[in-house]
Design goal:
heterodimer, A: 364 residues, alpha/beta, eight-stranded mixed β-sheet, four-stranded antiparallel β-sheet, 14 helices, B: 338 residues, six-stranded mixed β-sheet, 23% strand, globular, binds adenosine-5'-triphosphate, binds iron/sulfur cluster, binds magnesium ion
Chain lengths: 364, 338
Amino acid sequence: MSTVYDGERGEFVAEPAADTVPLLAVKDLRVEFRTNDGVAKVLNGVSYHVDAGETLAVLGESGSGKSVTAQTIMGILDMPPAVVLGGEVLFHGEDLLSAKPARRMQVRGEGIAMIFQDALSALNPVFTVGFQIAEQLRVRRGLSRAEARKGAIDLLDLVRIPHAKQRVRSYPHEFSGGMRQRAMIAMSLALDPELLIADEPTTALDVTVQAQIMDLLRDIQRERDMGLILITHDLGVVAEVADRIAVMYAGRIVEQADVYALFRGPAHPYTEALLQSLPRLDLKGQDLKAIKGLPPSLTRIPPGCPFHPRCPRAVDRCHQEVPDFHPLPGDRHSACHFAHEMLVSGYPGSNPDKHSRGLSRGDA
Amino acid sequence: MNEPILQVRDLVKHFPVRVGVLFKRTIGHVKAVDGVSFDLRKGETLGIVGESGCGKSTLAQVLIRLEPPTGGTALFEGRDMFALRGNDLRRLRRDVQIVLQDPYTSLNPRMTVGDIIGEPFEIHPEVAPKGSREGKVRDLLDVVGLNPEHINRYPHQFSGGQRQRIGIARALALRPKVVICDEPVSALDVSIQAQVMNLLGELQRDLGLSYVFIAHDLSVVRHLSDRVAVMYLGKVVEIGTADEIYGQPSHPYTQALLSAVPVPDPALRGRREVIRLTGDVPSPVDPPSGCRFRTRCWKAQDVCAEEEPELITRVAGHPSACHFAEAHVVVGAERENS
Ligand SMILES: Nc1ncnc2c1ncn2[C@@H]1O[C@H](COP(=O)(O)OP(=O)(O)OP(=O)(O)O)[C@@H](O)[C@H]1O
Ligand SMILES: Nc1ncnc2c1ncn2[C@@H]1O[C@H](COP(=O)(O)OP(=O)(O)OP(=O)(O)O)[C@@H](O)[C@H]1O
Ligand code: SF4
Ligand code: SF4
Ligand SMILES: [Mg+2]
Ligand SMILES: [Mg+2]
C-alpha cells in the first residue's frame, strides 16, 4: 500500500484504496515518433483516469502531447512514424492496446468517441452532414435507410441545429464554424458512447458560440452520464466545466488534481506559472508574470526535471533527478520534487513572501 | 488627455460579391466595415474586439492603406491619410505599421531574419543608410528580446512566440508612431502570450507608440488597452475607457460577450451571470435592418427593426449604439473583491 502526505495533518498516511475500476485509465503511456529529424519522445509516461459522468480536463501547451494521447486511446495513431513503447489503455479494466483489431473497432464509436480539433477536416466535404451521421447508424446499428435518416435528424436536433429536417441535407461547407462543431458532436454521439474525448472543441470558435457548445456538451454529458475528456489549453474553460485536471508538459502529466484544489493551490511550479501568466478579465495589471523560455524540443528533452530550464524554483537536484509523480492527499499527484512543500506553504498569491522564497531557493 | 493622432470618421469598406465566369456580375456587397468612427490618442492603446468576421482585419487593412476605403475619412496627425500622395504617402507608410496575427505564415520562409527585419530599410533608405543597417537590425532584435547572433537564421528555426517578435521588430524598424496589432498573440500559447504582451507594453512605454490592438480575446484586450471599441457586423456598437466597457457595459452585445468569457476561477462557477446568445451572426452581405444585433438581442422591440440606433452617450458616460442602453455589471467580469 502506498502512502501519501497529508498536508493538514503534517504526516504520511495510507492512501485510500480505489474501490472501483475507472471507466478509462491510461497507465504509463510511452510513445515516440521516429522521423528523419530524429526520435521525438512525445509521450513519456502519461497516466490519467476518468469515471462515468466525470469531466477530466487535459491542459497543456501546444505540442505537449494532448492529442497524441487521445489518438493512442482511440487507436488511430499514425504508425509509423509513431511507435508505442509501452503502457496500458484500460477501458473498464480491459487493455485496449493489446486487444484484437475487431474489438478495438467495436469500442471506437460505441465505447469511446472523439470530437476532433478541426471539425472541417474531420467531416467529409463530398457527403451531406446527414448522410455521414446516418451511415454510422446503418453500418454499426443495422438501421434501415429511413430509420438512419430519422436518427440523423434527431441527433442534429439534439445538438440544437435549427431546422434539422432541412439541414440534414446540407454539406459541411454550408455550415458556420459553430454548426460544424455541433454536427461533429452529433456524429460522435450517434452510437451513444460511454466516453467522449473532445479535442479542443471550441478553440476555433467565438466566445459566444463557445459558450453554447460547452453548455450543450455539459447537458448531454449529464443526461447520458457520459465520461468526458476535454482537451484544451484554455484555463478559463477548464475552470468552468472540469471536475479534475491533468496538466501536461513535454509528454508527461506534471500535475493531476481536483479543479478547485488546483486553482486554490497548484502543486507544480508549471501549473503555478500558467495561472500567474494569464491575462484576466477580472484583474487588470501592468506586466504579466510570463514564463521565461520555451517548451523543450521533444527530440532533446532536458535531463532531470524537464521543466527545470524554465522553473523559478529549480535547484541543483532538479537538473539531474527526474521527479516521481508523487501522490498527494485528495487524489492528487504532482511531478515536482517540492510538491509537498508547495502544498504546505500554500499558493504564493495568498502570501506575498512565498514567491520570492521560491525564487531565492532557486538561486541557492 | 493627449491629442488624437488618428481620427477615423464614418469609415466604410464594402467588398463586391461577384458571380459568373466570363461576365462577372456584382450581386451584392459584403459590408465588412460600415461606418466606423473613433479617435486614437497619442501614446494610448485602443482595443478593438468583436466576433470573427465583424470587420476588424478589414479596418486594419484600410488604415494601413492596403485596401482603399469605400467611404469615410481618416486624419493622421490632422491630415487626410487617404489623400496623401508621393513623399507624404511614403512618410505615412513609415509612420503607420502593422503586426499580423499568424506568426507561422506572415514571414517569408526564404528570407533570413536579418533580411526580413531590414527589408523596410530597402524601401525607406533614408531611415538607415546601407552601412548602418546590420547594426540597426541587431539593435531591433535586442529590443524585442531575441539574440542578435541569430540574424542569419530563417523563420522556421524560431518558435511561434519568437516569430511574433520578429514581426514586431520588423514593424518597429521604421520608428513608426502608430502600430496596428491584428491579433498579435492569438496564435500563441498562454506561456508565450504573456511574454509578447509584456514586450508590447514595454515598447509602448519606451518608444511612446500608439496602438490599435485588435483581438477577439477580451481578457487580452483588457490587459493592454486604455480604451476599447466593440464591433458587431461592421459597426462599432460601444466605445469607452476599458473601465467603462468592462465595468459598465451598456450595449446588450457587449454584455453578452463579456459574460461569455470563461473566468479562470472555479470558485465563481455558477455564481456568474452568463447571457447566452442564440443563433449565428447574420451575413454581412444582407445585415438586418435597424439595429444589426436585433436578431440575437433579448431586448429587441419593434423600433429596433425600424430605426438604426446611433452611437451616442445615453447612460454610463460613454457612447453605445442601443435604443435601450442600460449600464449593467456583468458579474465575473468585474470581480467584487479579491
Ligand atoms: N504524425 C506525426 N508525425 C510526427 N510527429 C508528430 C505527429 N503527430 C504529432 N507529432 C508530434 O508530437 C508532439 C505532440 O503533438 P500533439 O498533437 O499531441 O500536441 P498537442 O498537445 O495536442 O498540441 P496542440 O495544443 O498544438 O494541439 C508534437 O511535437 C508533434 O509535432
Ligand atoms: N477581400 C475580401 N473580399 C470579400 N470579402 C471579404 C474580403 N476580406 C474580408 N471579407 C469579408 O469581410 C468580413 C469581415 O472580415 P474581416 O477579416 O475584417 O473580419 P475579422 O473581424 O478580422 O474576423 P476574424 O476575427 O475572423 O479575423 C467577412 O465577412 C469577410 O468574409
Ligand atoms: S522538480 Fe525542480 S525544476 Fe522541476 S518543477 Fe519541481 S522545482 Fe521546478
Ligand atoms: S437597439 Fe434594440 S436590438 Fe439593438 S441592441 Fe438595443 S435593444 Fe437590442
Ligand atoms: Mg492537439
Ligand atoms: Mg481578422
